[in-house]
Amino acid sequence: MGRPTNNDLEGDTEYTMFTDYLEEENRLSYATKKSYKTSYRKLRNILGKNIADTAQDTTAKAIMASTDNINSAQALINIAIIVREKVKQMPIDQLVLQRNINKEEVNETLKQANLFTELPSLEEVDNFIETLWKKGMYRDYIINYLIRHHYVRNQDLGFDICETKRETLEDTTKNYLWLDRKSQRVNYIRNTYKTAKTYGQKVTVITNERFLRAVKVCNRQMYAFPITTDPEKIGYYIQKMTLNQLGEGRILKIIIDHYKSDYSKIQEIARSRGTAESVILSSYNISYDH
Hints:
It is a single chain. This protein has helices at residues 13-24, 30-47, 56-66, 70-87, 93-115, 122-134, 138-150, 165-170, 196-199, 209-220, 234-241, 247-258, 263-273, 277-283, and strands spanning 159-162, 175-180, 185-190, 202-206. 23% of the residues are buried. It is of the alpha+beta class. The longest helix is centred in the middle third of the chain and has 23 residues, at 93-115. Strand 2 (175-180) and strand 3 (185-190) form a beta hairpin. The chain has a four-stranded mixed sheet. It starts with 12 loop residues before the first helix and ends in a 7-residue tail after the last helix.
């Protein structure tokens, strides 16, 4: 026997208009609509009357006083905004202001939580890359090697493998791993990356024997690269390939934390990544001696 239906607002004009709006919004899932209805009931109980009949500042103050959970408060404010803006075409400026204030608190909470998130050591990252090599997971090995030793972003990892210089000149908006068999090296060519307009094309020569072998194997496996033809999805695939699905950003944080007292290494990371040293230092709150 299912849970009995809550009919305490059945026939209520505002609630009916609200639910009619939800039904007309095809983009909303059934679960979202159900959640919105529950939040509406909570807000009505808090206010003791129609949402539209309550002043914005009164609504905001009542919501903030009703819960210590900032996310719960945001959910209720969103309902008030929907009712006033979408259903009743009423002003929402004060509610939006409160929501933005709350967003800052949410972001600060997340920021502080991230500061205390315990990340693996660089040794663990290196062991993970070693395991990829031993298992013959060459595509994953290439990606993690480039993140670990060349400090690249997701966008940099969207590349084709080619065997001639001519191929790298056919489309100078793409990135390449040019497998130069004659010189037994890989030229990592980056034309498209976040700061390309500032730093221009970057060419990195890689002679590491393991990396060279991995590129040769993946070149034979025509499906290996590019990882995806959709730039919007590359971050998703890269994250799945990294240790504990940390993604390149957190791996970089591990690397920088490991070398935080070595300013020359910080300079190397900045040059390779294509960013200012000040950005690296300020973004990761690193103190150093040099």
